[in-house]
Amino acid sequence: MRVRGATGVSTSADDPATVIESAGALVWRVRDGGLQVQLIHRPRYDDWSWPKGKVDPGEALPTTAAREVTEETGKPVSLGLPLPGLEYLTPEGRVKRVHYWAATRVHSRSPAVTARAPVPPVDPAEIDDVRWLGVDEAAGRLTRAADRIPLEALIEEHEKGRLATTALVVARHGKALARTSWHGDEASRPLTPTGHAQSAALVPVLAAFGVDAVVTSRWRRCADTIEPYSRAARLESLPSEYVTEADHERSPSRVAALIRALLEAGAPSLLCTHRPVLPTVLDVLGQHSRRSVASALPTKDPYLEPGEALVTHVTQSAKGPRVVGVEKVLPPLH
């Protein structure tokens, strides 16, 4: 049994003949001052475990986690901090990797759930019991000892006041037409077909992290990148002049102020911007991060690939907002 770290999300594919990728979550809540988690019982194996399942073709890992939890518990969730995953050999000799997040329930009419694909009801032949348990009872109820590893991490984050988070997602716009191939003004340079595909691929990832507010550069390639999510979630995006390339060059301080405002708002949000703007964005995020998280932020140009998202997990502390986790997600194209 090997424990996998959870500082980031990789969507690169290993050999599917030998590696089974799966994802799930530890759904948590606080009741009467105590931390509780949700376990499922599978009659086929007669075991108690965390909701999880295999990655479907074309799915990013966070999308799988949110979908599988809903399929197995009957309730939609929003993903929070990544937790340690597990890696082990199946009886058939294949490597199985399980990726975990902390998660909380979200209302079925929230914008993020509206943006998700429909999920079938719980199949009682697969899951015949779902229970909320205190963490000590849950640790004793889990069938496999290794499943206590992500639970221990969840408890530690709770004890340190870092478990209750919201996501601030920073996305670089999808692949755009080359400057040399475009004869219009820079603000209207469009996405390529690949860029449009990347925009569509972002939708289920943003939904998995519960995004319910969207801020974007006014320039076309950014506005078009977030349009599929805004449409699916039935959200009005907030276009901003501050995060265009030209306005950032004139006043980086306005970009910094916008990022601070988004951090302080404490709402699951998306910012879509351009590569030259990212150093300012990352600098502000680093100023609000603990050291280990700041060191995990991208440091080399291009910082994010076209269509890639940086998911930061933000908690509100007595000293203001703190970034307590970060992961990069590049959704696979169908």
From TrEMBL:
It holds the Pfam family His_Phos_1. Residues 18-156 form the Nudix hydrolase domain. The keyword Hydrolase applies. InterPro entries: His_Pase_superF_clade-1 (IPR013078), His_PPase_superfam (IPR029033), NUDIX_hydrolase-like_dom_sf (IPR015797), NUDIX_hydrolase_CS (IPR020084), NUDIX_hydrolase_dom (IPR000086), Nudix_hydrolase_domain (IPR051325). This is NUDIX hydrolase. Transmembrane segments: none annotated. PANTHER family: BIS(5'-NUCLEOSYL)-TETRAPHOSPHATASE [ASYMMETRICAL] (PTHR21340:SF0), DIADENOSINE 5,5-P1,P4-TETRAPHOSPHATE PYROPHOSPHOHYDROLASE MUTT (PTHR21340). GO terms for molecular function: bis(5'-nucleosyl)-tetraphosphatase (asymmetrical) activity. SUPFAM superfamilies: Nudix, Phosphoglycerate mutase-like. PROSITE patterns: NUDIX, NUDIX_BOX. Keywords: Hydrolase. GO terms for biological process: AMP biosynthetic process; ATP biosynthetic process. The keyword Plastid does not apply. It comes from Sanguibacter suaedae.
